[in-house]
Task: inverse folding
């Protein structure tokens, strides 16, 4: 069985951990969001790729869901002594090594997809991890500041401003001229079906789908998504702030309707949102309700198994 | 009093510590060797500038003479896990922060002299620290390997090969087209005299003097050197291997003769080398013998005071 998965960070990583456990023999290709990538201290940081890699490779700080386990912050303390910003983004020593290696190889002209494969040589995540593109796409958020519009990097809005300042627009800058990374379209085409983990529909899945060619390739396959909204609230993170920016209500139904039946064939919602099963706006999408909290690896595996099950059904 | 000092790493840093103590009111400009600079893990490392900065700023690992105190090696261990080389150069976490800041600013197009000043804003070394040049000069060592000549970076020869493979040539590549960093020639011209600490005559002082304009500016001043050779052996490091490459015997007399009376006005040698005082090949150079081991900061201050004293005498 071949499965392609579009992935953001923490939610996707936990779902993928479950998927690998539920389908140990499946060939899983993960297409990771790079719109959150940011240059910090001159180093290229790929938060979503790293979260997936560390989680599946056993190096994650499981409690916080991102960053490395047994982390220390010696370098960051020194950078702060030099007055080098930004102070709002915490990079641990272990994590930093990943960014140093990535930045060195990027500076040598290697594409991000090749570098990601090299990093995975160490982590052996048990999936093929591809960045959505080797080109630079940067998710930008337009906010209002002092009566005027100001555009900031997604990470600045998300981490520094805690997404508390309303976003007027969220733009995957550069996406229109980006090309899918080598292997992305092939993996989607070769997949039995495509899964959308409970990642942020706007800044994770939405940004991946904004790379020309990916949405078309995905739409041609059976696609099953797992709702990131449970009982009218994001399971994790501040997806509501992102959805508000694109005028989508924070409900499992609205997110599925936003993806649309042209993309989505199946949709898993939480039992709290079971009204979505019969929602008229989801006509053409097979909706199933079941518990969706991935509080343990075993529960994540159950949810992944249910997604695979639904994908098989809608593939028929 | 204004003093200009040409400086390598450990020996220069200890001498400068002594000089600062001996002459607390002097305006000291240090012109640091950058021929040892190397790109490691994609980061720009300036070993000599950092050794001077850390030593005078109180951040040095005093026991080993280079690197930071209270150092940890978490990032390096991770880089090793990624199989990223070179394994022969140990960079601590605290030290790494300096290289990250420097590399970030270099990538933004700032000159090394400006960056060095910014780093010194933190360390407040009590001297003005200037790189010899903002241009790239790389000290290369030509060795014989398997019957053929091979050229390696100085650090590879020095650190990886422990200078155990004989050097056929030592070349400051790029020096011929390098320009002195802003302030270098001005500081030398404005100085009451120039001091040469007991740094490596070939790869430290020699490389600085290879930047066009610096040797001329230095020669125009009263210049006093402190011998890095005591009793026919380098006080520290493997200066003998460097001297052999240029055909200079490892003696206090030969090193002074190599600099020549055109450059050197005064020369401090150790009491073990007091025959240099009357050496005919040092005619025209005022030679004085005294204990030269800088085993404590107080002894370093005594030696620096003696150098200043001699400089005043030869300036008359």
Result:
């Amino acid at each position: 069985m071949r499965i392609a998965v579009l992935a953001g960070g923490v939610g996707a990583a936990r779902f993928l951990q479950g998927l690998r456990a539920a389908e140990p023999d499946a060939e899983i290709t993960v297409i990771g969001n790079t719109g959150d990538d940011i240059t910090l201290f001159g180093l290229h940081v790929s938060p979503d790729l790293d979260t997936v890699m560390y989680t599946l490779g056993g190096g994650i700080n499981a409690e916080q869901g991102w960053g490395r386990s047994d982390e220390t912050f010696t370098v960051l303390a020194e950078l702060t002594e030099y007055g080098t910003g930004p102070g709002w983004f915490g990079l641990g020593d272990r994590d930093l090594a990943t960014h140093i290696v990535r930045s060195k190889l990027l500076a040598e002209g290697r594409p991000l997809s090749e570098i990601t494969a090299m990093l995975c040589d160490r982590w052996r995540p048990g999936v093929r991890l591809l960045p959505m593109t080797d080109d630079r796409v940067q998710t930008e958020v337009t906010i209002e500041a002092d009566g005027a519009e100001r555009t900031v990097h997604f990470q600045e809005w998300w981490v520094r401003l805690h997404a508390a300042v309303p976003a007027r627009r969220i733009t995957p800058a550069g996406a229109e001229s980006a090309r899918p990374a080598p292997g992305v379209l092939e993996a989607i085409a070769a997949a039995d079906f495509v899964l959308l983990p409970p990642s942020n529909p706007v800044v994770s899945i939405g940004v991946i789908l904004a790379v020309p060619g990916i949405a078309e390739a995905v739409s041609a396959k059976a696609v099953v998504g797992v709702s990131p909204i449970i009982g009218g609230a994001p399971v994790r993170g501040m997806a509501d702030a992102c959805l508000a920016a694109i005028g989508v209500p924070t409900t499992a139904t609205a997110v599925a309707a936003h993806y649309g039946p042209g993309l989505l064939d199946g949709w898993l919602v939480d039992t709290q949102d079971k009204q979505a099963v019969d929602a008229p706006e989801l006509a053409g999408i097979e909706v199933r309700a079941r518990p969706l909290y991935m509080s343990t690896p075993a529960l994540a595996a159950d949810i992944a198994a249910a997604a695979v099950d639904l994908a098989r059904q809608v593939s028929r």
User: Anything to note?
Assistant: The interface with chain B takes residues 41-43, 72, 74-75, 78-79, 81-84, 93-94, 96-98, 100-101, 103-104, 107-108, 118-119, 121-122 of chain A (CB under 8 Å). The mean pLDDT of chain A is 96. The first strand of chain A starts at residue 2 and ends at 7.
